[in-house]
């Protein structure tokens, strides 16, 4: 009789034992697949939020801002913003330009002072960068030429103000003087990053420029690249954009790719390390469960091994038999576990997982995480689970195969 046939018969004859092995492998595979999907979703959201709210895919601003950022250098602006955006839109790979005017300031409420950051936006251009309309939870967006503001939901709660109420912000202008402006709240926006929802309010860019004494100037210009632009080519587009700006007399400006900006890159790098550590931990944990279960099953069958040896089955055949059993069980368990992990991740990818305060508000990541199935890691989990369980069956089988039939038959 073929060893494969014997292996199948052994599996079907000992259903409880087989089910235990399959369950252990499936649970380990499910856990690792789910973890990989969760972390992949966090990585994607982190990159998306950084590009949408901080850097775009390529960021253009005054070259000296990085050196003096701690001093709030609002006077280091992008001059002739209209001309700069026209030049950038002519660079190959750039699909849209998004100007912003950012002005940190203080909102005074009775005996309390609330620190906030105003962001002057061009709503139509902003829509080209991210789905800002989906974030509006109440009211409407501010209209150009009007002293109106859309306030982050957390900031609105801290201010204890709602739609129709007003607040005044005091800030430092680009001329290094002080200026204040009163805005009426016309909408509330739920920004995905808690830190932004707690500090940001959005106003028309023309009113921000008036407040900051910045005619045809902006703090920064963000760009979105064309969808056909190859992945990872943001650096090349940034270099081309900077060359085009310098060639037209804008030598004070620098263009940098989002993944080349120090604070952004460090976040991604740190998160990648955390990703690898967590994945390794679950791999080790899952492997120990699979190995434990498989070895326990083999050791329980010492008498069976002795019987087979007494009937003339050689050590090599015994090892191959247990390897085939482990292989069949691991393929079934890994397939079930990975399939359940993928289905669960797809469902949670739609509904999201509310992490609440488990996510630090210092990171540019929201409290609701949407897992994303990664094909490469899913395939790796499947073959890893199969390999671990199959090898785990061979190791104790080799030891048991070396026991004499008489000693094996005496085993309890």
Integer tally of domains: 2
Overall average residue pLDDT: 84
Major sheet attributes: 6 strands, mixed, barrel
Helix content, binned percent: 40-55%
**How far do the termini sit from each other?**
28 Å
Categorize the overall geometry.
elongated
Total strand segments: 12
Assign the structural class, choosing from mainly alpha, mainly beta, alpha/beta, alpha+beta, or little secondary structure.
Answer: alpha+beta
Order of helices and strands: HHEHHEEHEEHEEHEHEHEHHHEEHH
Q: How are strands sequenced across the largest beta sheet?
A: 2-3-8-5-7-6
Regions with pLDDT < 50 over 5+ consecutive residues? none
Q: What share of residues are in beta strands?
A: 15-25%
**Number of H/I helices:** 14
* Overall radius of gyration: 31 Å
Question: Please, could you describe this protein's structure?
Answer:
The structure is a single chain. This protein has helices spanning 3-13, 15-55, 65-68, 81-89, 123-127, 153-159, 194-197, 205-212, 234-247, 262-299, 302-310, 315-351, 375-401, 405-410, and strands at 58-62, 94-109, 112-121, 136-139, 148-152, 166-172, 178-189, 200-204, 220-225, 253-257, 353-354, 368-369. It is of the alpha+beta class and 412 residues long. The chain has 2 domains: 3-50 and 266-410, no CATH class; 64-251, no CATH class. The longest helix has 41 residues, at 15-55. It is elongated, with a radius of gyration of 31 Å. The mean pLDDT is 84.
